[in-house]
Design brief:
The structure holds 2 protein chains of 2 kinds. Chain A has one domain (about 30-400): Formate dehydrogenase/DMSO reductase domain (Formate dehydrogenase/DMSO reductase fold, Up-down Bundle). Chain A is built from 16 helices and no strands. Chain A has helices at about 10-20, 25-50, 65-85, 85-90, 95-120, 145-170, 180-205, 215-245, 250-280, 285-295, 305-320, 325, 330-345, 350-355, 370-400, 410-415. In chain A, about 45% of the residues are buried. Chain B is α+β, with helices and mostly antiparallel strands. Chain B has 2 domains: about 5-80, no CATH class; about 90-310, Alpha-Beta Plaits. In chain B, about 30% of the residues lie in helices and about 15% in strands. The chains are: A mainly alpha, B alpha+beta. At the A-B interface, helix 6 of A face helix 5, helix 6 and strand 7 of B.
Chain lengths: ~425, ~300
């Protein structure tokens, strides 16, 4: 009998840990930066833990803010990272396996961040079990948030399972060809659409909040996610092409950028359609959009952010639409950053806060994230980046063929022949 | 059972108080149940749902809350768990012609229902008021946009101003109940929407869903001075809340299920408030509905409030 530590999975884990703890100076500096971010987050959460959510900028009129905004943005990233598998398949890009696996790892990291954002936003995190399937008594089918918890959990474990199985199999020198595996990979694509749709429905299903109660909300969520998710993937793929032996042709990168331009066009068109409807109708529902873009009675906290988001989105659209600019590596990456800025604001505070402002009783409470919220958010992004860094180090080593574990029985069999 | 509210006040009130006292005395000597072994403790931690408790469990739970209050505030309190009365659905009426924005209802409500008091000198001033009185221009009619809850109520009514008190409308089709992910809030058979403070996870979905701004969150530990505690409590109503949970008006469930009027009703110096059993043809609220033209707030949202406004 072989020792348990000689089995493939423990060997795989040990090899991964060795990778995580060894690297260049740039790698160590990067890890140190992320750990520092996590410490900042813990310090922020200590304040929130001892004082309560009163340490945030939230109050009764605006009861969701930066945390839930970041949650919404990251659900989009998690969804779109996996959806990139579709064009990879359609256009026969060489590294489809790499794109699929990195997309899944990005999804795992994003969903982890989503769950942390929900956790820090809860008034009673000690009662987390109440909302867990089977343990708690969750309000399905009527509560959309209950559905969201279900689908996010399912999506998390689905991607975790797929990625772990694929990487362990490949590290043993096999290809992950298996009917169940293929079905799971394919099912993660509609699931990706599902998590973002259900998250949109959490907002969409509230008729007392006209800013969210528009049928375009879920489609807008999806198209903006098709911008932000690929933007992160595009930058990652370029980095990995330089630092790891990842083969990716320029054509694939340009094609992703082109597809993002179309997604951004639809996103801007949808935004325009909503602006037209509200402005031309001119009902009291216009108040929320007015607060976002112009402010009301000199209360203009959101205005600069709203315009920054809109301008960043429009500029990136043109950068990615014109072949000359999207084929320029510098402009391409500027475009990615602009898209991220645009969507981060649009699906974050510019989505959540105007829904509450003016409040249902007409109050205009000017919400802005407190320093505690910014610190906790920094920490959660640190955790997410750390998770993704470690997971992708393992993944790249496996994909490059540097991380190999042999099954002991096979090794013995080989020695005998 | 009496069908009218008034005769039931004295009888129910007395009976309720007597039953409560007897119940408390009977259970006080019994050891707290469920604390014998750890499995029970875990089950209790996860499954302590007021909705599903047997009468015995409920009584034990109320005793525990009483003991907890004694420990925290050094005060003897009575925590009741009166179920909804049979053949009763409560309704509220408010005469906007009489209301002059004096906010006596707000003060009475804060006192009665043990709401968090302001602490302007402290770092975490987080007062909670279940009733919001909005001041708006008389000319505009009911116009929430541009209204304010922050007016100085020393001299009311201010010239040209009208007032609109808003609290939980006890919707017959409550959107807050629909969105709660953990079934921590529900509508009782007497129409009162209640919250199980021990189930609430503080996600604040209900606050997003409420069209009336009626739900309030304990952003910090509530500031409840021991000498200001109202010791007559209901387990689904005015018992002290904890940090991180949502609370709201319950039509003073601790009073109305014992035949008393809500505190805001009794405190109103202008007589603007009407309360009673919607199922009782002789009740004041039914007389109001039959003789006046009433309206509800945001009728287009299909929430079917049981809080009716009218002009006399």
């Amino acid at each position: 009998m072989s020792n348990i530590t000689d089995r493939p999975f423990p060997k795989f884990v040990r090899a991964s840990v060795r990778l995580w703890t060894h690297g260049s100076r740039v790698y160590y500096a990067w890890i140190a930066l992320l750990l520092a971010m996590v410490v900042v987050g813990l310090l922020g959460y200590r304040t929130q833990f001892s004082e309560g959510l009163v340490s945030t900028g939230l109050r009764d009129p605006v009861s969701w803010g930066f945390y839930i905004g970041n949650f919404t943005f990251l659900v989009g990233v998690a969804a779109a990272a996996v959806i990139l598998v579709i064009p990879a398949y359609v256009y026969h890009w060489k590294p489809i396996k790499e794109i699929a696996i990195l997309g899944e790892l990005l999804a795992i990291a994003s969903i982890s961040m989503c769950m942390l954002f929900v956790l820090v936003d809860m008034g009673r995190p000690d009662r987390l079990l109440h909302i867990m399937p089977f343990i708690g008594d969750i309000n399905v089918p009527s509560s959309l948030l209950a559905w969201d918890v279900l689908v996010l959990n399912a999506y998390f474990f689905l991607n975790l399972g797929i990625a772990t199985y694929a990487l362990v199999t490949m590290s043993r020198g096999h290809e992950p060809h298996n009917k169940l595996f293929t079905i799971l990979v394919l099912s993660s694509i509609p699931m990706a659409v599902g998590i973002h749709t259900v998250t949109a429905f959490v907002y969409n299903g509230l008729p007392n909040r006209p800013f969210w109660n528009a049928s375009l909300l879920a489609p807008r969520f999806l198209v903006s996610a098709f911008c932000s998710g690929p933007a992160i993937m595009l930058m990652l793929l370029q980095i990995l092409r330089k630092t790891a032996r990842l083969e990716l042709k320029d054509d694939a990168i340009w094609k992703i950028a082109e597809l993002m331009a179309y997604a951004m066009f639809v996103n801007l068109f949808f935004t325009g359609a909503e602006v037209f409807k509200e402005v031309y109708s001119g009902t009291e529902h216009l108040q929320h959009m007015r607060y976002l873009y112009f402010g009301i009675d000199g209360k203009t906290t959101l205005v600069p952010w709203a315009w920054l988001s809109l301008i960043a989105s429009i500029v990136s659209f043109f950068l990615f639409l014109l072949p000359r600019t999207r084929k320029n590596p510098v402009l391409l990456n500027i475009g990615c950053v602009l898209i991220l800025i645009g969507v981060f604001i649009e699906k974050g505070i510019a989505l959540v806060v105007p829904g509450f402002t003016p409040s249902v009783l007409g109050e205009i409470y000017q919400y802005a994230p407190s320093s505690t919220e910014v610190m906790v958010t920094t920490g959660i992004f640190g955790v997410g980046a750390l998770l993704f860094t470690l997971m992708s180090r393992t993944a790249i080593a496996v994909l490059n063929g540097d991380l190999r574990v042999e099954r002991p029985d096979l090794a013995v069999a080989a020695a005998h022949t | 059972m009496s069908e009218t509210l008034i005769p039931s006040i004295t009888r129910r009130g007395l009976l309720g108080a007597a039953a409560k006292a007897a119940g408390a005395a009977a259970v006080a000597s019994v050891a707290l149940p469920g604390c014998d072994d750890r499995a029970d403790q875990v089950r209790e931690f996860i499954h302590k749902r007021l909705r599903e408790m047997s009468p015995d469990e409920m009584r034990a739970f109320c005793t525990r809350v009483e003991a907890d209050c004694k420990e925290r505030f050094g005060k003897d309190v009575l925590v009741g768990s009166e179920p909804p009365l049979k053949d009763v659905v409560f309704g509220y009426g408010l005469d906007l012609s009489r209301c002059n924005g004096n906010r006596k209802c707000v003060d009475a409500c804060v006192q009665e229902n043990n709401q968090s008091r302001p602490s302007p000198e402290g770092p975490h001033n987080n007062p909670i008021q279940w009733i919001t009185v909005l001041e708006m221009d008389e000319e505009a009619g009911i116009e929430l946009a541009g209204s304010t809850a922050y007016y100085e109520p020393v001299k009311v009514p201010a010239p040209g101003k009208a007032y609109l008190p808003v609290a939980c409308q006890q919707c017959d089709n409550p959107p807050c109940v629909k969105v709660c992910p953990v079934k921590a809030t529900w509508k009782e058979t007497d129409g009162i929407v209640v919250i199980d403070y021990d189930q609430c996870i503080g996600c604040r979905c209900c606050m997003s869903a409420c069209p009336y701004g009626a739900r309030h969150f304990n952003w910090s530990e509530p500031n409840l001075p021991a000498d200001q505690i109202n010791g007559t409590m209901h387990v689904l109503g005015n018992r002290p809340r904890m940090r991180g949970v949502v609370e709201k008006c319950t039509f003073c469930v601790q009073r109305t299920r014992n035949g008393l009027y809500p505190a805001c009703h009794d405190a109103c110096p202008t007589g603007a408030r009407v309360f009673g059993n919607l199922l009782d043809p002789e009740s004041e609220i039914r007389r109001l509905l039959e003789t006046k033209r009433v309206f509800v707030l945001k009728a287009e949202l299909n929430t079917h409030p049981k809080f009716f406004y009218f002009y006399s």
